[in-house]
Design a protein that fits this description.
single chain; mainly alpha; Rossmann fold; N-(1-d-carboxylethyl)-l-norvaline Dehydrogenase, domain 2; three-stranded parallel beta sheet; three-stranded mixed beta sheet; 12 helices
Length: 284
């Protein structure tokens, strides 16, 4: 995400300091004008805002709150810690509360669709100040409300996206086993339900293209994490989540096969195994 956002911030006139535990991830960004720092705390020490995008909530919590290395402790008074990762709403609120205790602000701003959308939770006045930076990074900037609500919106979006994908797989398998032309069926479902028809994930599933641990962008482990958090939220507030639970179980079954580092649509193979058929699109 840094490779996407940093050049946009620089192009918009912002001074950007960066840090990544993988030094090679910073090389090209430095050539584009970013300032390489020695640590995350160094990035934060002179920043109006520090934006982080991290793999999982445990890392977010450590980077933000650790007593010795936590970024929020290095921020100047009145500045902001912005989490663009997907994390539980409870963690977003905890970070915000801790930030308020030390005179800074915690903002949750998870991104969707590769960074096209950002949904934001936190102090409206601080979000307004950061709005130009958000607009530089993302095409669709949506303020959702108080702390945690940016994360709630993201989890709801993930819930719809991934349960819908597996619903489509099940429908195509029903058609395939009933000897319907799978490609025509996929096109019909896509057009008649307002979707775009077979997307890249479906096409790559049919081609048995699951990327690799090095190249995968929508990794099964990340998708399973996001949907799992959505289901946990639903359980916490006693809201229906049957389709999410079934989909989450499918993702977990795929993880148990050791597929966690591959593109998430590899988990559709679990449904294919149950069906005894493979999704095929001869001329897709």
């Amino acid at each position: 995400m840094g490779a996407r956002f940093v050049p946009r911030l620089i192009a918009a006139g912002h001074t950007v300091s960066i840090f990544d535990t993988r030094l090679e991830a910073m090389t090209n960004l430095v050539l584009e004008g970013a300032i390489q720092s020695e640590s995350a705390k160094q990035v934060a020490s002179e920043a109006d805002a520090v934006f982080v995008s991290l793999p999982n909530p445990a890392i977010v919590e450590k980077v933000a709150l650790d007593e010795s290395t936590g970024v929020i402790h290095a921020l100047p008074k009145g500045s902001a810690f912005v989490d663009m990762s997907t994390s539980p709403p409870s963690l977003a609120r905890r970070i915000s509360e801790k930030c308020n205790e030390i005179g800074v602000f915690g903002i949750d701003a998870p991104v969707s669709n590769g960074g096209i959308f950002v949904t934001i939770g936190g102090s409206k006045s601080i979000v307004d100040k950061l709005w130009p930076a958000f607009e530089a990074m993302c095409e669709k900037v949506i303020y959702m409300g108080p702390s945690g609500q940016g994360q709630i919106a993201k989890l709801c979006r993930q819930y719809v996206s991934y349960t819908a994908f597996f619903t489509l797989i099940e429908a195509l398998l029903i058609g395939h086993k009933s000897e319907v032309d799978t490609q025509k069926l996929a096109n019909f479902i896509g057009e008649s339900t307002g979707n775009s028809g077979p997307g890249q994930s479906l096409k790559r599933l049919a081609e048995r293209d699951f990327g690799s641990p090095e190249s995968a962008r929508a990794k099964l482990d990340i998708v399973a994490k996001d949907l799992g958090m959505a289901v946990e939220l639903a359980e916490l507030i006693d809201s229906p989540h049957g389709t999410g639970t079934v989909t989450s179980d499918t993702l977990k079954a795929a993880q148990e096969k050791g597929w966690g580092e591959w593109e998430y649509w590899i988990s559709a193979c679990i449904l294919e195994e149950i069906s005894g058929k493979k999704i095929e699109f001869p001329s897709l």
